[in-house]
Specification:
single chain; 728 residues; alpha/beta; GIY-YIG endonuclease; 5 domains; six-stranded parallel beta sheet; globular; binds adenosine-5'-diphosphate; binds zinc ion
């Protein structure tokens, strides 16, 4: 008897057994099926097939209907997701349904349907209406004239309905193009000749990378501005020539436009982007086009890793060290690590690039798991920027900026260059305080203070995003003597406008760059030199290549110097190196200014004197001595609850249970409160498990979840498991 295992969207670790429908003898893995479950018919996804089950056959129900003839999840992708389920201790059904495009869940689309695509005819291009046409037709024509090829859903997004589209078709102004008629991109592949002459380091690395066709994890460690993208482009070229697809991951959406531009300029192939801001229909379309092989290149953020490809040939993970690759909401996984697993299952090379590789990857290269190649020289004429520390504690400081910094800004602006000011705090000021009773306004849902956002005219909590109106009086004593303390990017913008009223300024942070279009618009402004002073948070810190920026200033990083997380210094070293790498990427040499009240802090001294890699070597030594990751494995359990006590008790109970098991070398730390204890009304605590062997810890944890499962079903507590936690 053939039994099929089906994953259902419920929090149960093992898939469910079903019998094949009548008159059906085979079913593939990764297809959607309808199955009876607790008196309902629900959607499931087939996992394994043709297994003989030990269970009582009479009790097993039959699959009602098979929805897909061809699997939605390829075999390789499915095995990656199954690996994730085991490694991250997340039920496979939940994982599959998490990554399945919404449309596949909602409309129960049968088989893969492809959205209609339209192209403008010659008649359409030169169409001049003799009589008055309807506004809808006018709008539709204008749109398609602009973008030439358009999907049905793109019409719909502009409120243009199928009636209008049909009447355009009838008048021969547009025609439908069928995807199976789309010309194969491989046979038409053209590679732009407009490209830099590679230096010997680049040539050697490309030779090496292109010599491997099977799974091979490359760690591309190249200083900022050393031309890593050129390596990506050359490796991609080889893959496209054999007709295979390439996936490029970037940590944040704002890095997509720039890298996309580089690839569009080089190759004439279909390139699509994939990220969480895309509309569901668009997501589905990219998914389908990628699956049938119409896209050659996909550029996206971490979720792009879970698209089905027809024939994936290479994965590139840019800025591999970036913590944005880690998903922390709902459930936890690290996209860089999963990308390596995917490359392995697909048996293809993967290139992980960074100017500041993560401590884990550096160690992986040392022990031979990754293969490291280095770019040590800046490309073209650019040179490594000079850096200088400004001691804020003995300086005349005007408006949070040292006189020295202001004079340097002036100097660089006079030379017609651009200046970048980095501050990792958005808003106007992080604190509004009553000078009479010394109280300040706290978010009632979080253990944090409100940040003043002057432009938007409210106080905002940066943890739960709740807002209140800016008070005129102190809610505690009624005084009107309210003042702000500290500064954020919004205030920096105001200060800059007052000092340099004629200079155009662009600010990029979560408040000003709310969607993909806004981000793209701002980044273009900087590239085109329309903007001369750029102010931003970590959104501008990484990856960008703005050749005319010659001065970069880090206005205040002191908070990070005194964090109690052992990973904070690694992050700060990366941030510093990345931000300073934005300076002097063109022909003029660059300058970096770091303002701090602690110029003699040992961390800053090591980093500035010895550089990033020496700093990492030292950190590795420290971590080895303390048996901390990456020299040991860690898994955390987080509990969240409206009651502080219940959140703690939940973890205490687990701890007692585990300690009775007496596993050798297992450390159980906690319960430890989160740095920000209360967020969105929930108190948050964690229990950290640490063991010298990652594998053994993983197995222990699986068993624990199995044995302890009934205690975990506490309706009042939200809990989540974090494997290889990086911060809270
Ligand atoms: P990063 O290593 O920081 O990612 P990029 O890949 O952004 O650096 O490269 C910076 C600039 O240098 C790009 O404009 C790129 O076209 C250019 N470039 C790359 N290789 C060379 C080269 N060999 N000679 C001159 N310019 C180059
Ligand atoms: Zn007061
Ligand atoms: Zn809040």
């Amino acid at each position: 008897m053939k039994i099929i295992q089906v994953a259902l969207p419920i929090p149960v670790y093992n898939p469910f057994n079903y019998k094949l429908p009548n008159n059906c003898s085979i079913i593939k893995q990764g297809c959607r099926v309808l199955v009876p479950f607790r008196k309902k018919i629900i959607l499931g996804i087939t996992i394994t097939y043709h297994i003989k089950s030990k269970v009582n056959l009479k009790k097993i129900k039959r699959i009602k209907k098979i929805l897909d003839k061809n699997p939605l999840f390829s075999k390789n992708l499915l095995s990656v997701l199954i690996w994730m389920s085991k490694y991250y201790h997340k039920p496979i059904g939940e994982i599959l349904f998490y990554f399945l495009p919404l449309q596949f869940k909602k409309n129960i689309l049968e088989n893969i349907q492809i959205e209609k695509k339209w192209k403008i005819t010659r008649k359409g291009i030169f169409f001049k209406p003799k009589k008055k046409i309807s506004l809808n037709i006018y709008k539709a024509l204008k749109l398609i004239k602009k973008i030439r090829v358009i999907h049905d859903y793109e019409f719909q997004e502009q409120n243009i309905h199928s009636k209008t589209i049909l009447s355009l078709k009838k008048s021969n102004l547009i025609y439908e193009i069928y995807d199976n008629k789309i010309k194969n991109w491989m046979s038409k592949l053209r590679i732009s000749k407009n490209r830099p002459k590679l230096n010997s380091e680049q040539i050697n690395i490309i030779k090496k990378i292109n010599s491997k066709n099977k799974f091979f994890p490359w760690l591309l460690a190249g200083i900022t501005g050393s031309g890593k993208t050129e390596i990506y482009l050359n490796a991609t070229e080889k893959i496209l020539k054999i007709g295979r697809q390439v996936l490029i991951l970037v940590p944040e959406i704002n890095l997509i436009p720039q890298i996309k531009k580089m690839f569009v300029q080089r190759f004439n192939v279909p390139i699509d982007i994939f990220h969480s801001y895309l509309k569901e229909k668009k997501k589905l379309n990219v998914w389908i086009q990628t699956k049938i092989g119409n896209n050659a290149i996909i550029i996206g953020t971490r979720s792009a890793l879970f698209t089905s490809f027809k024939d994936l040939g290479l994965i590139i993970v840019d800025e591999e060290h970036d913590s944005s690759y880690k998903q922390k909401e709902r459930w936890c996984y690290h996209a860089r690590d999963v990308a390596v697993v995917r490359a392995k299952k697909e048996n293809i090379p993967i290139i992980m690039g960074s100017a500041t590789p993560s401590i884990e990857s550096i160690l992986n290269a040392k022990v031979g798991k990754y293969f490291r190649v280095n770019l040590t020289k800046k490309t073209g004429k650019s040179k490594i920027a000079k850096s200088k520390i400004i001691d804020l504690s003995n300086q005349i400081v005007r408006n949070e900026m040292s006189i020295y910094l202001i004079s340097r800004i002036e100097f660089h602006l006079k030379k017609n260059n651009q200046v970048m000011l980095f501050l990792n705090r958005r808003g106007y000021a992080p604190l509004i305080i009553c000078y009479d009773c010394k109280s300040s306004k706290k978010c009632f849902r979080c253990s944090s203070f409100y940040t003043l956002h002057l432009e938007e005219k409210y106080l905002k909590c940066h943890y739960c995003e709740s807002v209140i109106l800016i008070p005129k009086q102190c809610s505690n004593c009624g005084s009107t003597n309210l003042n702000t303390i500290g500064f954020g990017t919004e205030k920096i913008e105001e200060i800059m406008r007052s000092i340099f009223p004629k200079i155009p300024i662009t600010r990029i942070d979560k408040d000003t760059a709310k969607n993909f279009e806004k981000i793209e618009e701002k980044i273009n402004k900087i590239h085109e030199g329309e903007s001369r002073i750029l102010i931003g948070t970590q959104m501008i810190a990484k990856g960008h290549h703005f050749p005319n920026v010659t001065l970069v200033a880090l206005l205040n990083i002191d908070g990070a110097l005194f964090s109690n997380d052992y990973r904070a210094t690694e992050k700060l070293a990366q941030l510093y190196t990345q931000v300073s790498g934005r300076a002097g990427r063109g022909k003029d040499s660059g300058e970096v200014i770091l303002q701090t009240c602690f110029p003699n802090h040992p961390f800053l001294r090591t980093l500035l004197r010895d550089g990033y890699y020496k700093f990492i070597e030292k950190s590795l030594k420290d971590r080895k001595e303390a048996s901390l990751p990456p020299y040991s494995g860690q898994i955390s359990i987080y509990s969240k609850c409206h009651s502080n006590k219940l959140a703690i008790d939940f973890l205490k109970k687990i701890k007692t249970f585990v300690e009775r098991k007496k596993k050798e070398n297992l450390l159980v730390l906690g319960p430890i409160p989160f740095t920000l204890l209360k967020k969105s009304g929930l108190f948050r605590w964690k229990l950290v498990f640490q063991h010298p062997s990652k594998t053994s810890l993983c197995n222990f944890f699986s068993k624990l979840l199995l044995n302890y499962r009934k205690y975990l079903n506490d309706k009042k507590i939200r809990w989540i498991i974090d494997v290889d936690p990086i911060e809270d």
